Amino acid sequence: MNLQSLCPSREELVAAFRRSLAGRLVAIVSFGSRARSEAEPGSDWDLLVVIRARHERPVREVVELVMSLPESWRGMVSPIVWTLDELERHESSLLFDIALDGDVLFDPEGHASRRLEALRARMFARGLFRVRTPDGEVWRVRPRSADAQPIALDGAKR
Q1: What is the CATH number of the domain that holds 26?
Q2: Tens-digit pLDDT profile for residues 10-35
Q3: Could you tell me if 43 and 16 are in contact, meaning their C-beta atoms sit under 8 angstroms apart?
């Protein structure tokens, strides 16, 4: 079986999520190997799916979303579902990765694009940068002046 033939296109994904989420869909952002143009045949779609409000618990929301897709796609799509409020409040290394590499697939009102651009500006202003190491990618902070403000990752208080 050819895994590539099972993998949906970006247009097919957007259409499927628009049908499934109807008026709740705010944005879809691809991240990971596909967004970085490093995907291999059979690579899954890592997606940040932004919705207006939750109808279910977060885990249930993801399960329902994946189950709404054609069966042959289900193993090829790995969504993270956040509300618009969560997108605006959340600040983590994952979101910094998405800000740096993300490919906005759907964002008619510009919410995700504006948030990711603001994060990129914040990362630059604070001297935050990503480094590839043999063990994976890590975030580092360039040395700053004494008046520089610390940046908290993954909800950590500084």
Answers
A1: 3.30.460.10
A2: 899 999 999 888 888 999 999 998 89
A3: no
